[in-house]
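Lab notebook, bench 4. Still working through the backlog of constructs that have no structural model yet. Next entry is a single chain of 147 residues. Request: give me the structure tokens for it.
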Amino acid sequence: MRDPVLRSLLPARAAPLLLLLLTVAPAVAQGTAPAPRKAAPATPAAAPAPFVACPSLANLRLLLRTNRNDPGAVSAILADDRAEHLGCALIGRERVQALADHVELGGTAYDCLSLQGTGTCHWTLSGTAAPAPAAARTQAAPDRPRR
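Model written out:
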């Protein structure tokens, strides 16, 4: 390099690179280089929480009204064995088979869901639980050859 300007710029540009090499090279040579970041372990999906359902819409409305329409408070009452449940219970979402009926009263919508193991539909707040997909409830019939 014959140009004094280029010669004077070279040390200024090379200093950060040289500093980086001096810092990283000993760690790499010893095999103690920082490990690559691992992805966070996947947490298993929690089972959906049970929902409040009653065989009687009147009892569901009464239970909700006395607890200021708070499903959490109603769930706490239903968890207590000594409390009056009015026939209501906490139902697991896996028991829902189909939407049997729907009604709107006083600006609040309610669904009556048919459940596995019972012939009576149970009333709950609309949108609380969706019926399980049909494929999950029944096994598909094997394909039969056409004649």
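Notes after review: The radius of gyration is 33 Å. Residues 4-30 form the longest helix (27 residues). Flag for follow-up if needed.
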